Amino acid sequence: MIIIDRDRNLLAYMGKKKRLIRILSMTDAGAVAQYELADDPGNIYMPLIENGRNVETFEIIGEKLTLI
Record's superkingdom (predicted)? Predict the structure, then answer.
């Protein structure tokens, strides 16, 4: 099952290059199912998942805070 929570702004680093991404949805096992690049919003990517885990490494760093 994939949980989509577009209200949260969960940020993470992806891969060896540590690209900053925004996680859009995760599986119930905790794998990243959909993400977009932080500097290029709107383009949605789906990483490869094998045996319930992501092949690419993701390091979750926290939530983005918006100031009003």
Answer: Bacteria
Q: What is the CA radius of gyration of the chain?
A: 12
pTM of the model: 0.78
The partner residues of 14 in beta bridges, in order of sequence, read 19, 58
Token digits for 25? 């949805």
What are the pLDDT digits (tens) for 29-64? 889 999 999 898 889 999 999 999 999 999 989 866
CA distance 24 to 36: 7
| Cα dihedral sign, 60-19-25-10 | positive
